[in-house]
Write a structure and sequence with these properties.
The complex is a heterodimer. Chain A is α+β, with helices and mostly antiparallel strands. Helices cover about 30% and strands about 40% of the residues of chain A. Chain A has one domain (about 1-80): Alpha-Beta Plaits. The model of chain B is unreliable at about 305-310 (pLDDT under 50). Chain B contains ten helices and ten strands. Helices cover about 40% and strands about 15% of the residues of chain B. The chains are: A alpha+beta, B alpha/beta. Chains A and B meet through strand 6 and strand 7 of A and strand 1 and strand 4 of B. Chain A: InterPro entries: CRISPR-assoc_prot_Cas2_sub.
Chain lengths: ~100, ~325
Amino acid sequence: MASMIVLSATAVPDHLRGALSRWLLEVTPELYIGTVSARVREELWASVTACADDGTAVLAYPSDNEQGFELRTAGTQRRRPADFDGLTLIAFRRESKEDANLV
Amino acid sequence: MTDPTTHPTGPPRANARRKLAAPTVAMLPRIADSLSFLYLDIVRIHQDDTGVCAEVTSERHGTETVYLPTAALSCVLLGPGTSITARALATFARHGTTVLVTGSGGVRCYAATLPDSLTTTWLERQTRAWADDTRRLAVAGAMYEKRFGTGTAPAGSTLAQLRGLEGQRVKAHYRLLAQQYKIGRFRRAYDPDSWDTQDPVNLALSSANTCLYGIVHAAILALGCSPALGFVHNGNQQAFVYDIADLYKADLTIPLAFSLHASTNPEAEARRSFRDGLRLFKLLPRIVTDVQILLDPEAQLDIPDPEEQLVDLWDPIAGAIPGGINHGEGP
């Protein structure tokens, strides 16, 4: 069953952006939306994590849990999904970017 | 440019901003749809320019900020070591989120806030059913049948008879589980004076039941019902909580407690497994629909009307009539 995915990529190489736009719509720079099967989603995400270089990426897709979706991240960024007894919220550090990257 | 979506200026924009700050009922998820609960402890919760955030400090990640989805949460359980600002509390109230002050692990409910925006529909239904002795007995009978199956409460039985039947059933359930786990004779005891000398099953059961009471309490408050007006239980501020919690003990806490009969730390283990079980059991939406069906079996439980007036006036003949209008101008 195909389901909608949202993929955000930041500072990834141009070839990856071009490749992603073959499967998904780039609705605003580096934000991709589309409906693909779980299999295609896994393949795309594997390519994104492999090609992201210094960039970062976030993937959101529907899932059978309380919130109705799951999140995946690649690369290091200030925001990270944090688990609160089964509830996923976003935790981030307020300090400067350099500080956050040290973690 | 004539497209209003590209340049939102003037009144529509001001309106939209106000709506985001103080959402209407239609914008908030229904209790059964929203996220069941968020348990926080050892955090500082405050409101900044945009939203409510919790500052979480951990050894691994240092101090981090977590924005809380206030409008999507039905209740927040604040454990020990939490501090919260008045402005953050006000935002929770405005978004209809129940805030509970609880003991460690979400067990025991010390205090709770009730959102001001809550409709009183369910409180009214509860008090009507409670104040009428015939209807109160009918609800008690329905609770009994919910636990032990349709047709198990003989028509016309008194509360005393129902209590007697309930006692026998629960005892039989204990006996069956005791046999299953081969632990000989089991006797339910919760004497606070000899707490530490109790067997693991009793300790685990008490601990898991306290968790259950906390969650049921939150659900009852989120509906706007009174936790004090019980149908089977009486004369306690948590009487209704005990009534509703009893519906789930046979499925949830009793088997869990018996499975921990060999545990060395039954209380903590019971809390942990209970939390895991809840996720699968989807307890909060279940409690909400069960309470609604018990209090008003004929009610149509569908989407609330977005045009619904928040405050109605009561009229003995016409029922609820819309408020916010000057009725002095009428005929």
